[in-house]
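Reviewers of the previous submission asked for a worked example of the structure-prediction workflow described in the proposal, so we include one complete record here. The input consisted solely of the amino acid sequence. No template or homolog information was supplied to the procedure at any stage.
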Amino acid sequence: MENMTLNPIASADMTRDAVLRVRGITVSFGGPTILENLDLDVWRGEILGFVGASGAGKSVLMRTILGLNRRQAGKIEIFGTDYDETDDMHRMAIDQRMGVMFQHGALFSALTVLENILVPMREYLSLDPQLMEEAARLKIGLVGLPQEAAHKMPSQLSGGMIKRAALARALALDPELLFLDEPTSGLDPIGAAEFDELIVTLRDTLGFTVYMVTHDLDSLYSACDRIAVLGEKRVLVDGNIAAMLASDNEWVQSYFKGKRALRLAVGHSGG
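From that input alone, the workflow returned the following structure tokens.
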């Protein structure tokens, strides 16, 4: 993996604590290998944007880290613990420290927004039902949804509201590590910008770490402290926007030096 200079937020040596460390990850599904000998670190408190060409395996890696895909080789450490080597009780404790927002929200269609947020609480917590409902309503407010959305079904929500409801469910257990899979896909530019701003605000306020699978250049410029680029079945380069622009990798150049990317760069530099 080509290591570039990270930006001050991501590279601060005060902690440099890897909440997630993957080494030598190899994944295939009985055919061509999707990921091969892949290494990646995610630092505490950062927002990492994970990008790559369509079909390169971005979501595959995230689902593999979460244990939803089998891997043929490699090691995954979460919060300093080898996930494979620990016992079931410690795995459950690790699971409770993570939140996941899947692409398109993946809300349970037969449950209300409130009931969706309560699902992980009921699975992991032994609390009075009224306390759990109050906590779920706090999450609804935290992501900017009106309280009347609590009793709406997913089919009654706009695309932006679905994203926020899914985020509220991902935050149900107050995670330290939040996984977001294409969180702004399907949103208009204003809605996407508002969602990016929400993620940054929540990270700054609550202090969690974000692993964001995305293809949204606006998100990479406005929300991410560091970017890791997936290609050729591994992480090709990681660093900030300046590192991406300095990379001599052909795909990275085409992605970050295209006309739209350069317009964004000018906008963010104040030009």
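The radius of gyration is 19 Å. We consider this example representative of the routine output the project will generate in years two and three.
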